[in-house]
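Lecture 7 notes: from sequence to structure.

We start with a single chain of 171 residues. Read the sequence below before looking at the structure.
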Amino acid sequence: MGKLGFLFNPEGNMPKGEIKSRDVEYDFLGLLTESIDGNDNKFNGAIKLDEDSIYVEKRSRLNGKVKDAYTIDYDDVNEDDIQRVADNKIQFALADRTLLLKTLDDDMLNSFESRLINKLTTGSFEVMEETQAKQIIRDIPGEIRKYHELLKDGIITEEEFENKKKELLNS
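Now the structure, written as tokens:
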């Protein structure tokens, strides 16, 4: 995630062009191309994935001042409408516009895409690490062995063991 100065006004509104420094963790910083009715407009973009919505800032490419800011509800974004169109570009279509995000920071773009898709599919930003997934896979045989020991000790029946084994193998 990138840090960038953020528009901040104590009254809670965000007037265009006024920048007062405050550190905010953005999930995406880079070039934002917004297509509305076939018209493409390019901005420097800053996007924050909040719990309830996606906050988008369109900044001037010359001086970095905020030109516009808006939020997108997660209900308005469909996982199928998010596409990796190139190694450094992600595009997602909304009802009224298409956003194309471009950056040279691969890690940031990968993290942004993973967090956004995970939020849309599970409702959470938490992304399971690959090592955690491998650990879960490795634990299934161990779990089956534990239940086999319980079977051998007469604590569970053959039927209970087979049912648990099927459940573990199908998970």
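Residues 1-22 have pLDDT under 50 and may be disordered. Keep this in mind for problem set 3.
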